[in-house]
Amino acid sequence: MTILLDAYTLPERGAVKLNIQRSFEINVTAEEARRRVASWLVDQVSYMMISELPMLVVGERVIWRVPAILTAPHVGRVGEVGVVHVDVQTGEMDNTPECVSELQQRGLELSKTLPPYKPRGEAPAEYLIKDMQPTHLKPKRKQNSKRALLATSVAD
To answer: CA 89, CA 63: separation in Å to the nearest integer?
Structure first.
């Protein structure tokens, strides 16, 4: 797990002494936050987005910073489109319409960098089924019983 300390200023060089005394309760685990964001991304933003393991950010609030990733079937992982914040105590998510719009816009920009989709074409002959019998035959048409009787009586 990575912990990011937000809003702490450090010197560019030299010795650093950092005393951190902060207590908080984690009611939502990193995996729970990732799963909540993954579900929300698919339902509300794009079915082509997934989430990755979050980073714990300790600042004014303690949150999970969950990366949102754009994927494509023919490429796989395309890139990060943004982050979604999840409160570690309440589980409250930053799922505002503005957040949705930003993720979708960044996803659109990233999708323009993708190579064009190229279908694989036909499967090689050695992988095709050659002698498979049909699993069912066409049903035979039933003759009307009166017509069948008439046809046999006329023929006699």
So the answer is: 8
- Strand 3-5 to strand 55-58: parallel, antiparallel, or no bridges (unpaired)? parallel
Token couple for 138:
């066409």
Task: Read off the pLDDT of residues 1-36 as tens digits, 9 standing for 90 and up.
Answer: 667 776 677 778 888 887 778 889 999 999 999 999
3-state secondary structure of 56: strand
Concatenated DSSP letters for 8-27?
----SSS-------------
> What is the rounded CA–CA span in Å between residue 133 and residue 143?
27
The pLDDT of residue 144 is: 61
Helix (H, G, I), strand (E, B) or coil at 67: strand
Question: Which residue is associated with the tokens 């999708």?
Answer: 111
For 78, the token pair is 């395309």
Find tokens 């069948």 and name the residue.
Answer: 148
Residue 13 within any structural domain of the chain: no
125 part of a folded domain: no
- Domain limits for position 28: 24-111
What global pTM score does this model have? 0.69
* For range 116-138, the mean pLDDT: 80
Domains contained in the chain, number: 1
Per-residue pLDDT of 83-109, as tens digits, reads 999 999 999 999 999 999 999 999 999
